[in-house]
Amino acid sequence: MKHMENHLKQTKGQVRTRFPPEPNGILHIGHAKAININFGYAAAHNGICFLRYDDTNPEKEEEKFFVGILDMVKWLGYTPYDITHSSDYFDQLYEWACELINKGLAYVCHQKAEEVKGINAPPSPWRDRPAAESLQLFHDMKNGKIDEGAATLRLKVTLEEGKQDPVAYRIKFVPHHRTGDRWCVYPTYDYTHCLCDSLENITHSLCTKEFQARRSSYYWLCNAVDIYCPVQWEYGRLNMSYAVVSKRKIAKLITEGLVADWDDPRLFTLTALRRRGFPPQAINNFCAKLGLTGAQIVIDPEMLESEVRDVLNVSAPRVMAVLEPLKVTITNLPSDAPAQLEVPDFPSEPQRGAHRVAFGSEIYIEASDYRAAEEKGYRRLTPGQSVGLRHAGFVIQLEREVRDASGALTELRVTCQPVATAAKPKAFIHWVASPRPCEVRLYDRLFRHKNPEDAAEVPGGFLSDVNPDSRTVVTALIDGGLRAKVYDKFQFERVGFFSVDPDATEQKLVFNRTVTLKEDTGKN
């Protein structure tokens, strides 16, 4: 109680949470839920949330991951109260480890890693060695006198799952990102995070359900070194269908050349979702709607995509682009027809602004907006059916086709009539005039099965389940006057929502399809 009284004196009852990622990979959609819960719970109670890097494994930590994690936290709209590192507390953690040895609650063990795996691993023959002997060996470990893998420091505690004596320190002759060559013993997550929580006066350790098995270790450690003990609450983690989020498996996809990098838009890392064009508010809305339960949940990507559509529908200006261009020449366009048209950015809300597009006798339409033969239920251009041009004020009627020597359709010759005097067409189609070419990348699900990690469903493993058609690149035509910068988002009318890719240059725009205009029922 004296520790709690001191804690309340320092914090004045303020809620304090922390988001503690390991800086050895890029954050994914599951981390977005954790970010929303930790930062959101603190904000809802007028509290604060720390970003604490769990930098206890220097073998896998890189600067790009430290930078990338903070970048994604800020991208989602959150600002940490403070940015800390587990390595900030290495001296204190080492002192407490020595204290545990002196209390007979920790010991140096020489069993190999494979010997201590599993629930019913044999007890360590060194469990009852004298404290003085363990303390000297621990100092030797710290001073580099014992080989890597030849000794660990273990705690005398049994976890809920039955695992006995978890490792607290191991030897690694690897320089640390922040402390250099000062240390060659590094604490484990199980040992570190509860003690760091106490040092930072965290009130709520919010973590995913798999850490429930370590709750007893969390409380035991704080009590064993006689310090303030926060409370640990667990919630169900988030998994996505048709995806893998394991850092090791994503790294394997990259090394095998199946995806380009951590930000490949087919992945569910946060950098990938940003590159694809997912707005951060859509991800936050998605996390909020999941609610909080103890059960592990697996969500179909369509639920996230639905949130993306809802946000982009009111925020992405409309433009016209043609993904499968077919040239159309209007043979009787009036001489007084405007060379430029004013098109609203949001047709249902014209007061929100407009942009100008070129217009003329030579335009391009989607090849799928023309059928050479009449087709029941088809509402667009055919030899016997006219169609309207969006925003142009004209209806066009086929005059004749132009085909090359092989018989392939290369052009349509059409006549036009003002909308006011023409028979009402069944549909209006988009088009472009005086266009510029651009690269458009169309994405589908990366995996063919709902659970690519299910050995029964995918006997060859997740690498064999990659969808070869998950990425298609086309050269499209877009209004030549469009100016856009990286991550700008647009709705290509009648086509989908698209975002400017970082590969774009002033000379060549590159777009990623974020989502289609509505759920693609053919995906399954």
From TrEMBL:
<dbReference type="GO" id="GO:0005829">
    <property type="term" value="C:cytosol"/>
</dbReference>
<dbReference type="InterPro" id="IPR011035">
    <property type="entry name" value="Ribosomal_bL25/Gln-tRNA_synth"/>
</dbReference>
<dbReference type="InterPro" id="IPR050132">
    <property type="entry name" value="Gln/Glu-tRNA_Ligase"/>
</dbReference>
<dbReference type="InterPro" id="IPR020059">
    <property type="entry name" value="Glu/Gln-tRNA-synth_Ib_codon-bd"/>
</dbReference>
<keyword id="KW-0547">Nucleotide-binding</keyword>
<dbReference type="GO" id="GO:0006425">
    <property type="term" value="P:glutaminyl-tRNA aminoacylation"/>
</dbReference>
<dbReference type="InterPro" id="IPR001412">
    <property type="entry name" value="aa-tRNA-synth_I_CS"/>
</dbReference>
<feature type="domain" description="tRNA synthetases class I (E and Q) anti-codon binding">
    <location>
        <begin position="428"/>
        <end position="501"/>
    </location>
</feature>
<comment type="similarity">
    <text>Belongs to the class-I aminoacyl-tRNA synthetase family.</text>
</comment>
<dbReference type="Pfam" id="PF20974">
    <property type="entry name" value="tRNA-synt_1c_C2"/>
</dbReference>
<dbReference type="GO" id="GO:0005524">
    <property type="term" value="F:ATP binding"/>
</dbReference>
<dbReference type="InterPro" id="IPR020056">
    <property type="entry name" value="Rbsml_bL25/Gln-tRNA_synth_N"/>
</dbReference>
<dbReference type="InterPro" id="IPR000924">
    <property type="entry name" value="Glu/Gln-tRNA-synth"/>
</dbReference>
<dbReference type="GO" id="GO:0017101">
    <property type="term" value="C:aminoacyl-tRNA synthetase multienzyme complex"/>
</dbReference>
<keyword id="KW-0067">ATP-binding</keyword>
<keyword id="KW-0648">Protein biosynthesis</keyword>
<keyword id="KW-0030">Aminoacyl-tRNA synthetase</keyword>
<feature type="domain" description="Glutamyl/glutaminyl-tRNA synthetase class Ib anti-codon binding">
    <location>
        <begin position="316"/>
        <end position="416"/>
    </location>
</feature>
<feature type="domain" description="Glutamyl/glutaminyl-tRNA synthetase class Ib catalytic">
    <location>
        <begin position="14"/>
        <end position="313"/>
    </location>
</feature>
<dbReference type="InterPro" id="IPR014729">
    <property type="entry name" value="Rossmann-like_a/b/a_fold"/>
</dbReference>
<protein>
    <recommendedName>
        <fullName>glutamine--tRNA ligase</fullName>
        <ecNumber>6.1.1.18</ecNumber>
    </recommendedName>
</protein>
<dbReference type="InterPro" id="IPR049437">
    <property type="entry name" value="tRNA-synt_1c_C2"/>
</dbReference>
<dbReference type="Pfam" id="PF00749">
    <property type="entry name" value="tRNA-synt_1c"/>
</dbReference>
<keyword id="KW-0436">Ligase</keyword>
<dbReference type="InterPro" id="IPR020058">
    <property type="entry name" value="Glu/Gln-tRNA-synth_Ib_cat-dom"/>
</dbReference>
<dbReference type="GO" id="GO:0004819">
    <property type="term" value="F:glutamine-tRNA ligase activity"/>
</dbReference>
<dbReference type="InterPro" id="IPR004514">
    <property type="entry name" value="Gln-tRNA-synth"/>
</dbReference>
<dbReference type="Pfam" id="PF03950">
    <property type="entry name" value="tRNA-synt_1c_C"/>
</dbReference>
